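Notebook entry, structure prediction.
Reason for the run: the old model in the group folder had no record of what sequence produced it. Starting over properly, with the input documented here first.
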Amino acid sequence: QVQLVESGGGLVQAGGSLRLSCAVSERTFSNYRMGWFRQAPGKEREFVAAIRWSGGSTYASDSVKGRFTISRDNGKNTVYLQMNSLKPEDTAVYYCAADRYGSGWSVWGQGTLVTVSS
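New structure, fully documented this time:
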């Protein structure tokens, strides 16, 4: 079973940047899709961005497009979320997830908290 561990969260001032990391327990296969989600207090979990391991094609939600960038490092078995121009409304627990063989987002990390102050 693949395991995901997020890191890099913390407290940052509005306008600042953070880079989240998602370490994968084993080498991700070419047909994997990796994603980032977030959940703020009182809100439902929402999609942030996704990347296909093979080829590295990406997609981001409109709320973060132009500010957040998802990427991966095959050699390090790690997925990243570069977060720039952070806003207070970005405050949430951020989760890494994996979709294997088109089965859906079935593997999840424990989450890492991002707090953006005004």
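Summary: The two ends are 40 Å apart (CA to CA).
The old model has been moved to the deprecated folder.
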